Amino acid sequence: MIRNLLFGAFITTTLFLTGCSSSPVFKDPHKKNQSLVLAYINMSDADSEATWLRAKTIVKRGKKPEWYSFGFVRDEKLGPILHNQYVEPGKLKLDAFGGNATGWFDNAYYQYNFPAQGKGMGALEINKPGIYYAGSFKYIPVETGFFEQGKFDIERVKSPTEKEVLTAFLKHVEDGKWKKMIQARIKKLK
Fold first, then answer.
1. Where are the alpha helices (DSSP H) in the chain?
2. Rounded Cα–Cα distance for residues 37 and 115 (Å)
3. pLDDT value of position 26
4. For residue 160, is the peptide bond before it cis, meaning its omega torsion is within 30 degrees of 0?
5. How many angstroms separate the CA atoms of 19 and 75, rounded?
6. CB 3.0-4.6 Å disulfide test: which of 47, 62, 73, 140 passes with 153?
């Protein structure tokens, strides 16, 4: 009986550690017109980190927008880098982002919304297939009263640069079309 328990614990631990250490596989696009879009959100002043991002297409009134969910890869220096490798041509607007709390005893889940309008915040136009960078952003807490709900602002920042994000992201990409395209894009950037 003890041997069965030890074997079960060994298998569980092995599966857990394998899942934590494996790197994601980025498959080549399903369609020829798909692009890789990346974004970075500095959440150092927040109670959570940004491990997901949602974007929608900007369409004419009466049409339904397409929604895109961005996943992340964790870079040891930058933290989560958000990405979606199946975005089709069109106008895109970053809509919301969020993630789990970062505190030891906090199991809360946070969602933050990008501003609906103004500042061109999180707007991007995909004209042809390629690599696109939606930008680097910073979460900024806004002081509120004791009984008020927390508020925040988000602003576009210059650091990390597109080149820094692409270079960090490249470590997580296996050989294939995306890797070659990212390397070519990095060479073009100053």
1. 2-21, 162-170, 177-188
2. 20
3. 57
4. yes
5. 16
6. 140
